[in-house]
Design brief:
The protein is of the alpha/beta class. It is 34% helix and 21% strand. It contains eleven helices and 15 strands. The strands form four sheets. An eight-stranded mixed beta sheet has the order 8-9-5-10-4-11-12-15, sandwiched between helices. Strands 1-2-3 form a three-stranded mixed beta sheet, with helices on one face. It has a two-stranded antiparallel sheet with strand order 6-7. The longest helix has 26 residues. The protein is globular and about 75 Å long. It starts with 5 loop residues before the first helix and ends in a 9-residue tail after the last helix.
């Protein structure tokens, strides 16, 4: 029986690719320790993204691989998730109680952006992260309804300065809808809306969040610019449908975030296919492959592709989005995959920025 050493264990780990980081654990820098005690091996890995529903299966797979190594009688692999604050736009200070801000945006309305934001926040929470969601759609806030928060609910005020977010389904929620009458339209000009957004973000007493998901209004207007100039955003998720008109506007959204130096983490394609509930026939009502084409055009990831489903709409309208209403369903699993990919993309964006060489110009 040959002796086991660290190099042999690392060689085994290098054969397995983390599906979210697209690297093996060693190359991704996830290995925290490798202990070899005779024929017993203990490995500690640390993931930088929320992966509570994935890490045990990942640990078991790697454990079995290490136990297949000659000279190993038993192995133990421990995987933990430690989410750090990641770099945002230059010259914008970080938020004291929020590690990472994720903007969920769309070029036009009606593409399922708010539903995606709600399910993304809930999926991140199911993965073990501390999560908040801010409804930045001042003119048409909907997160209160989606999270089942009763009409007329008002946030408590702390020290006459801070709004306390309302917790629902394990997520902290803040929305302009909590401060106004649901039947009163917000007839405000751009500067007033931008000021309201900043107050909601900075005067809400978020409780040490790993991720704050911001449900953006559609388009590329004042609120988007205010967010880019004043709020440290780790990355943006663009939501679209396969329809050509939606893709045209989604491209504008991608270009806007790139111009203001906010990384685009990827694209979510909603209403990709409709499955008839009676006969099972599949129809691409809004076109086919549009999300993949958009992602390929801008060299970003297609994070998720979701069907046109009545259940998604009904569950969101009832205040129990799919991730909560049917956590074991196929659609809920797509949202969980989305959550892990978003967290991992934030990690990878910073790693790419660190790896990028700096360019200096001198007079010599």
């Amino acid at each position: 029986m040959s002796a086991v050493n660290r190099a042999a264990v690392e060689a085994v780990l290098r054969q397995y690719t983390d599906p979210y980081l697209n690297q093996d654990p060693v190359s991704a820098g996830c290995v925290r320790s490798i202990a070899v005690d005779g024929a017993q091996v203990t490995v500690a890995l640390e993931l930088g993204y929320a992966a509570g529903l994935f890490k045990n299966g990942w640990a078991q797979m790697l454990q079995l691989a290490i136990e297949g190594l000659e000279g190993v009688d038993s192995a133990k692999v421990e995987v933990t998730c430690v989410i750090a604050a990641h770099k945002a736009q230059a010259q914008i200070p970080g938020m004291a109680n929020v590690k990472n801000v994720v903007a969920v945006a769309s070029g036009k309305g009606g593409v399922g952006k708010s539903t995606t934001a709600a399910n993304l926040a809930l999926a991140l929470a199911r993965e073990g992260a501390r999560v908040g969601i801010l409804d930045a759609d001042i003119y048409g806030p909907s997160q209160g309804v989606m999270f089942g928060i009763a009409e007329g609910t008002r946030p408590k005020v702390k020290d006459q300065k801070w709004f306390l977010p309302i917790e629902a389904h394990g997520v902290e929620v803040m929305s302009m809808a909590f401060l106004t009458d649901d039947n009163t339209p917000m007839v405000w000009r751009g500067p007033m809306v931008s000021g309201a957004l900043l107050q909601l973000i900075t005067q809400t007493a978020w409780n040490d969040l790993d991720y704050l998901v911001i449900d953006m209004p559609p388009g590329t207007g004042d609120i988007q610019l205010t967010l880019a100039q004043k709020v440290p955003v780790a990355g943006a998720v663009i939501v679209t449908t396969p329809q050509d008109l939606a893709l045209l506007d989604a491209r504008k959204g991608v270009e806007m975030f790139r111009k203001v130096n906010i990384p685009v983490l990827g694209v979510v394609e909603n209403m990709a296919v409709h499955i008839c509930s009676n006969c099972g026939h599949a129809e691409h009502l809004f076109g086919e492959g549009g999300g993949q084409k958009l992602a390929a055009q801008y060299d970003v990831e297609l994070l998720a592709s979701l069907p046109l489903s009545m259940l998604i709409r009904e569950q969101a309208d009832s205040g129990r989005p799919t991730v909560i209403a049917e956590p074991d369903s196929q659609i809920a699993m797509v949202y969980q995959e989305l959550a892990r990919h978003v967290g991992a993309r934030i990690v990878l964006q910073e790693a790419a920025a660190v790896a990028m060489p700096s360019i200096t110009v001198s007079d010599d």
